[in-house]
Amino acid sequence: MRVNGEQYRTIWPDPTDSRRICLIDQRQLPHRFVVETVTSCQQMCAAISEMHVRGAGLIGAAAAFAVYLATLAAPDEGMDPYLREAASELLRSRPTARNLQWAVERMLAAIGTVATPAGKRQLALAAAKAIADEDADFCRRIGIHGLPLLEEISRRKGGKTVHILTHCNAGWLAFVDYGSATAPIYAARDAGLDIHVWVDETRPWNQGARLTAWELQQEGVACTLICDNCGGHLMQKGLVDLVLVGSDRTTHTGDVANKIGTYLKALAAWDNDIPFYVALPSSTFDWNLDNGYDIPIEQRAEEEITTTFGRDEEGAIRTVTLTAPGTRAANYGFDITPARLVTGLITERGVVAAERQAICRLFPEGPGDAATGTDLSVSKK
Ligand code: MRU
Fold first, then answer.
1. Per-residue pLDDT tens listing for the chain (381 residues)
2. Residue among 59, 94, 182, 207 whose CB has most ligand 1 atoms within 8 A, to mutate
């Protein structure tokens, strides 16, 4: 998508030296646009856990490139145990994110099909690029499948503005390109629909205020920032036509883990008879869990709640403390929206009900090729 009119992806190998992986450092947005270079798996683990990169698909792509970087650092003798250790470190970096696990397993399965160290390194780069390309393509297709939902609302409203409420950032910054929740919005913009997005600020990290509002503005999509508590009021006033969010992990039974606060939006949407859709690529499905409440919920540092940061009047980026000294904070990163509150899931293969049979009909292969274990499988550690 575009940054100041120029096309970018969120992560890419340096075209002059593929041992250098470039990524947009999202901690700096929207105040500074900084491209960072990562050259080791350890650096990528830090970039993931400290949220230089974040969001379902991007975490997966970053993990894939991290496994490739690990193959470069691994000794020829003993490459497999080295990669298993690297994989374990990656899996610890963001526990709720399903795409991370999916990408690591897929990388190890692919690398395990090749015998020589040189071959493994070559294949790892190709596999990581393929995961990144696939992520972008899945999101593009989510846009195609989500567009008719917005067209239908627009038709019903006689072409008047369609108001979409979104939470957190499930935009292109959370993936390699297009985004999941934003893909249908960009498709609708391209189709000439009159679209407006209510953007939840998404405390404590402010992904909505800092990222979603910025990327929609860069793409020329009308949007308005709201505080996290505002959505219910807007829904009661008839100012929301559809809620559209992303997901960090969705069980094959349709329960959705997404950024903390999503559940409250789903409850308000239910109470006001407003459709609540979740956009996700199949790489976000967890095929092993039946119950969303079994999804591990990441807890992050208290300081993300007790402080905030932004640009002051002189242009300096500052962190300020919001609370009295000693104030304790509980920083749960995600919550679970039960399937019964979800109108539908928008995937790269189409829109599907949030229930086991429908999901398994659309994805009969389940987890796909990543499931074929090899002698590199992380579970063997
Ligand atoms: O903690 P984050 O920013 O990595 O959380 C992920 C998210 O951005 C959201 O939960 C998002 O809605 C789903 S990821 C597309």
1. 888 888 999 999 999 999 999 999 999 999 999 999 999 999 999 999 999 999 999 999 999 999 999 999 999 999 999 999 999 999 999 999 999 999 999 999 999 999 999 999 999 999 999 999 999 999 999 999 999 999 999 999 999 999 999 999 999 999 999 999 999 999 999 999 999 999 999 999 999 999 999 999 999 999 999 999 999 999 999 999 999 999 999 999 999 999 999 999 999 999 999 999 999 999 999 999 999 999 999 999 999 999 999 999 999 999 999 999 999 999 999 999 999 999 999 999 999 999 999 999 999 988 654 433 333 333 322
2. 207
Q: Is the pTM here over 0.70, yes or no?
A: yes
Break the chain into its structural domains and give their ranges: 2-134, 142-362
Task: For the domain made up of 2-134, give the CATH fold.
Answer: Four Helix Bundle (Hemerythrin (Met), subunit A) (1.20.120)
CA distance 287 to 366: 7
C-alpha dist (Å) from residue 141 to 165, 174, 276, 282, 298? 21, 16, 19, 11, 29
* Pocket around ligand 1 at a 6 A CB cut-off: 54-56, 168-170, 174, 180, 207, 245-248, 258-259, 333
- Give the residue ranges of DSSP H helices in the chain: 41-49, 56-73, 79-93, 98-111, 117-156, 182-190, 207, 213-218, 231-236, 262-271, 303-306, 356-362
- Rounded to 5°, the CA angle 11-17-22 comes to 20
Question: Residue 158 has which token pair?
Answer: 């006689």
How close is the Cα of 226 to the center of ligand 1, in Å? 18
Annotation: CATH topology of 142-362: Rossmann fold (3.40.50)
Q: How many angstroms separate the alpha carbon of residue 96 from the centre of ligand 1?
A: 10
Give the number of the atom of ligand 1 that is nearest the alpha carbon of residue 259. 10
Among all residues, which ones are annotated catalytic?
Answer: 248
250 alpha carbon – ligand 1 mean position (Å): 13
